[in-house]
Design goal:
Layout: H1 2-21, H2 23-33, H3 40-60, H4 72-92, H5 98-102, H6 128-143, H7 147-175, H8 177-185
Helix pairs in contact: 1-3, 1-7, 4-6, 6-7, 7-8
Length: about 200
């Protein structure tokens, strides 16, 4: 039952993430909030941060046994994966404003169209934030191989196809043919493309 609650918390987190990022939902909020819509991003960031912290505080209360034997090798792998994931995350934020991303710079994201980022790490993968999170969550599992860390990782992997689908639907609506060309040219999560079968 404890892990079912953890799964449910993640389902709600990812559900709210996709819903509140939707252009249709944003337009509805803007119709209600009017000129105060510039606070939307910051309010969502605060809500998401508390929800994220709630998940990890809850998982810390679970009494768990390690799924793998204690090993310096696993600890090292965990640090390496999480470190690489953190580097990718930092590089993914290089070409846009962190303050705008979290909402500390108040703005109307429905009115102010950001430039499509295709530089830096975005030349090689379209969703480096997700790639970084995959590596961080996997690294955390190797560092702390518990059922809850496995749930964190599996729930992220389960969400990604949906998250990428909805995010790219929004990006196509925003950037049109420019994003379609970018999507065809650049892989989604890892810097290689699978060969298409004839």
């Amino acid at each position: 039952m404890s892990y079912l609650i953890l799964v449910l918390l993640w389902v709600l987190f990812y559900f709210f993430h996709s819903v509140f990022a939707s252009l249709n939902i944003k337009r509805k909020f803007k119709a209600v909030m009017g000129r105060y819509y510039i606070w939307y991003r910051l309010l969502y960031s605060i809500f998401a941060t508390f929800h994220f912290l709630l998940i990890f505080v809850y998982s810390a209360t679970l009494i768990e046994q390690r799924m793998l034997n204690q090993s310096p090798l696993f600890t090292y792998i965990g640090y390496m994966l999480a470190g690489l994931g953190t580097i990718i995350l930092v590089k993914s934020f290089k070409h846009f404003s962190n303050l705008k991303f979290v909402g500390l710079t108040l703005h109307d994201d429905l009115k102010e169209k950001e430039k499509l980022i295709t530089k830096g790490i975005h030349e090689y993968i379209r969703h480096p934030i997700y790639t970084g999170l995959i590596l961080i969550f996997l690294g955390y599992f190797f560092y702390q191989p518990s059922p809850s860390s496995m749930v964190h990782f599996i729930m992220l992997l389960a969400y990604l196809p949906f998250g990428i689908h909805f995010e790219e639907k929004k990006l196509i609506a925003t950037y049109g043919e420019d994003y379609r060309k970018y999507k065809k040219a650049v892989p989604s999560l890892f810097p290689f493309k699978l060969k298409k079968t004839a």
